[in-house]
Structure formats: C-alpha cells, structure tokens
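Dear support,

I submitted the protein below through the web form. The confirmation email said the job was done, but the results page showed an empty box. After a refresh the structure appeared. I'm attaching both so you can tell me whether what I see now is the final result or a partial one.
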Amino acid sequence: MKRARVAYAGAIHSASEYYGQLQLADGRIVNEQDVVWLPPVEPRTVFALGLNYADHAKELAFKAPEEPLAFLKGPNTFIGHRGQTRRPADAAYMHYECELAVVVGKKAKNIKKEEAFKYVSGYTIANDYAIRDYLENYYRPNLKVKNRDTCTPIGPWLVDAEDIPDPSNLAIKTYVNGKLTQQGNTKDMIFGIADLIEYFSSFMTLSPGDIILTGTPEGLADTAVGDEIITEIEGIGKLVNTIVGDDIFTEGGDRPHLKIHN
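What the results page shows now:
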C-alpha cells in the first residue's frame, strides 16, 4: 500500500492512493491537487549517507569511502511533495540528489544484515539538495550544505516494504524542467540497505520513524529559481519540487525573478 500524510480542510490526515486520487482515513475521496502534501513520515533521527555510490564520489573528485560516511539531518529541512525549496541568493552551485529513503519500522539493536529487512517498514523518495558553496572541512562535513530549511523534500508516498520485493534493484531518475539529468540504480550502492542497518544498529538503537537516506548516483546539475525538479524511483513514485528565491520568504517582497516552469 502507498500511504501519505496530507493537510485538507483544516486538518492533517492519513491517506492512501485511490485510483489516481487520495482516500482519507475518514473515507473521503479528494483530488491530489486539493491537498497540501506533508512528509509521509514524521522524521525522527535521519541518517544521510555521503558518497554511497562510487560514480557519484568520482564526479565530486572524492575517493569512495571504506566504511559508511554518514551525517544527521534536522527535522527543519524536510518538506512534502510539491513543496518549495529555497535557493539562497549567494549560492553558486545548488544541486539535487535523488535518494531511496528507508524507514525503520521497529526498534533495532545489534541487527545482523541477514535479519535487517525485518526492521524496515517501507520506502519513500528524498531529494537531498546540497549547496556546495557552504562545504566546510572534513571535521564538519555537510552541516551547512545539507541542513538548510526546506532543502529535503520527501515523499509523496511511504510504500510498504512488502510491496517492494527488491529495494536493492530500483531505477533512479531525476528530471529538471522535464529533461532527464540523473539516472542510476540502487544496486550500485557501495553499502546496501542491510549493511547500513547492521552498521548503525551496532552502536546505537534504531527506532520506528528513523530514516536512512542511502545516497545518490552520479548525474548532478545546478538548479535555478523557477526550476521544477522531479525525482523518481521505480515502484515508489515521483516527488515534485520547485526552487524559489529568497524573496518568497521576505515579507512584502515583490518576487521579481520567480518563474515557474510548467
């Protein structure tokens, strides 16, 4: 089943896919365009993998890691499907990253990889935007690059784990204004889903609602205000997002450079 969280008629609802529409938990059928999409899961601890695809590490001129290179993300950065992501006016290089997001379903500690998938409740899509201008040094990796408000769209669906029989072989694509710019497959992860659950649970307890963002393949490109970015993962869906400028967040701004591509 595909599950979503949406705001509709003044309340937050759980919803599921219903023949191209949404069925709310109270039985009402609504159009997708009539709701505000929220992250399908309220994130708890969110782990993000850096350089987990060898081709991506190569395009950034980094050596592929020998053990998982991970950092944490705060809840401030997450927004839902069809949300707006802010590009700071001083940013010279802000690129998308289409990633398979693994949602933990129950407490996990010292889990061997052979048992790891029993602890997954489902999968969704994350677009883990990076603003390379803010890259610091090895000892403070990715904090300013990856934790800015609105910079991690996630959704639209949480797809039950049993409906994705092989999450380790899913096609990944990203489109910028309709043009295919990124293409890969989850089979090319350096550290697979089971490896990551075994790794994280070896030194800390994983809990329901924790999310693992598993990294992105090569194919990065700069984005601009007004761009529509679609990140897509086979069997899970398409996550739509629009880049906006600082003026959207400034009270009384005249929004002179906002242009939405259709």
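Response: this is the final, complete result; the empty box was a page-load delay. The chain has three helices and 19 strands.
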